[in-house]
Amino acid sequence: MVSASEALDIVLSHARVLGTEKVPLLDALGRVLAGDLVSREDLPSHDNSSMDGFAVRSSDVGSATEVEPAFLKIVGESSAGHVLDRPIGSGQAARMMTGGLIPKGADTVVPVEHTREEDDGRVGVLKPAGPGQHIRKRGEDIKEGEVVIRGGKRITPGAIGLLAAMGYSRVRVYEKPIVNILATGDELVRLKEKLRKGQIRNSSTYALAAQVNEAGGVPRMLGILPDKPGKLRKGTKNALNADVLVITGGVSVGKRDHVKEALDEAGVEIRFWRVNIKPGMPLLFGTFKDTLVFGLPGNPASTGVTFQQFVRPAIHRMNGLLDVHPMRLSAVLDQDFVKGDTKRHFVRGVVRQIDGTLHVVSTGTQSSGAISSLARANCLVIIPEEVTSLKNGSMVDVELIQSFF
Ligand code: AMP
Ligand code: MG
User: Fold this and answer.
1) Cis, peptide link before residue 326, omega less than 30° from 0
2) Mean pLDDT of the chain
3) Dist. CA 130–CA 59, nearest whole Å
4) d(Cα 203, Cα 372) in Å, to the nearest integer?
5) In sequence order, which residues have a C-beta less than 8 Å from that of residue 64 and are 6 or more positions away?
6) How far, in Å, is the centroid of ligand 2 from the Cα of 248?
7) What is the SS3 assignment for 249?
8) Are the C-beta atoms of residues 320 and 17 closer than 8 Å to each other?
9) Could you give the CA distance from residue 322 to residue 153 in angstroms, rounded to a whole number?
10) Considering only CA atoms, which residue is closest to atom 14 of ligand 1?
11) How many angstroms separate the CA atoms of 111 and 99, rounded?
């Protein structure tokens, strides 16, 4: 039996970063940028006004007051998209709109609130304005040659805006891993079938496909295999044509658990079987050439938790993400917790902020068969191996289940 961190290290040591592809800008949302993105130009490309007002020479308005305004002749207008192509001399002003380019000769912008327009084409400036005031300088946002987004980062809506501002209509991102999903179990039926006695719906495949999507992979749902060694061997062999194969059920020590044996016979090299965790102890991991193979325990909570802890980081690594470890937050545990073993526990919990501090409670029953406990959870509480019990008010680490950019 390996520990949780040994298991994750083994998985990640076999997960290779995939190739890259260019995609249209909007399709890049949530994908991982391949290679540092270097700006090809200054942003903004020219000095421009951040206010509506008047572009003037600061030396002309140094002693302006309400009582004795500095009167300047309005010689033109500069607004976003309309360039004023003449210089501003001493005693002159250009009417400015936000985003308009600063005309030559002017070195400051007086906001319209600090001016009073006369009827004779002049403007009275009522306050002094120092050089550079209300001017967005060329390159102050981004300089040409600057790395604007590091490779290995997920592309956010903000990054899409930045890429658009720099004229990129296509972006190079890492490919998504194809993840084959197979369920095993004589009791499983498809969603539309009528349940007979002893049968249950194959729900885990759907939860897994959703988790694969969210993690950044492409799920392929391959259906259900029975607990028959021959059929399992053939079925798993046929499912190895992907970057990842996830099989649920049949990896424990029951009389009908034949998945390990079937994978072995299909040529999969078993890297570990059984991890010191709860739920999810029977987890199996192996490789077939470059394909990662996960045998997840069939209990729905075990399936969900082991995916979250071991498959998701592998998908993230294949996706090219630099940091594959989920963000951990510190929270106050609002209940006692007794743990009668030395496993690492992942407790399905609900975390929320109360008076500026994160507090967490479990979702109730932690039976690994409880589908509801995972559906209600927004986090996993991590209880380390060496901890045997926790008092109400203890600090614990939680990992959010929803993915973040
Ligand atoms: P196993 O790991 O095959 O022993 O399965 C453990 C438990 O999980 C059993 O109660 C199964 O009926 C249930 N189970 C297995 N696979 C699925 C699935 N795809 N969807 C829902 N429940 C499942
Ligand atoms: Mg089974």
Assistant:
1) no
2) 96
3) 8
4) 12
5) 70, 124, 125, 126, 127, 128
6) 8
7) coil
8) yes
9) 7
10) 298
11) 13
Ligand 1 pocket: which of 189, 200, 368 to mutate (most atoms <8 Å of CB)?
A: 200
Q: Name the one residue in this structure whose structure tokens are 């897994």.
A: 208
Tokens 């993230």 map to which residue?
Answer: 316
Q: What is the pLDDT of residues 277-320, one digit of tens each?
A: 999 999 999 999 999 999 999 999 999 999 999 999 999 999 99
pLDDT digits over 90-116, tens only?
A: 999 999 999 999 999 999 999 999 999
CA distance 66 to 135: 23
The mean pLDDT of 135-142, rounded to a whole number, is: 96
Q: Which one of the ligands is nearest to 188 CA?
A: 1
Q: 189: CA distance to ligand 1 center in Å?
A: 11
Q: Could you tell me how many residues make up the chain? A: 405
Distance CA 249, CA 235 (A): 14
Q: Which one, of 324, 326, 312, lies nearest residue 216 by Cα? A: 312
- DSSP assignment of 183-217 equals EE-TTEE-TTSPPPTT-EE--HHHHHHHHHHHHT-
Which residues line ligand 1 at a C-beta cut-off of 6 Å? 183, 185, 187-188, 200, 202-205, 248-250, 252, 254, 297-300, 369
CB neighbour list of residue 103: distance below 8 Å, 6 or more residues apart: 55, 76, 78, 84, 85, 86, 87, 88, 94
Query: Would you state the structure tokens that stand for residue 395, as one six-digit string?
Result: 């600090």
- What are the distances in angstroms from CA 165 to CA 41, 54, 97, 368? 10, 27, 20, 49
CA distance linking residue 15 with residue 313, whole number of Å: 9
Q: 37 - beta bridge partners?
A: 149
pTM: 0.90
Asked if residues 336 and 396 have their Cβ atoms less than 8 Å apart, the reply is no
The four Cα atoms 310, 313, 316, 322 give a dihedral, to 10 degrees, of -160
Which numbered ligand comes closest to the C-alpha of 181? 1
Distance 298 CA to ligand 2 centre (A): 6
CA of 298 to the centre of ligand 1 (A): 4
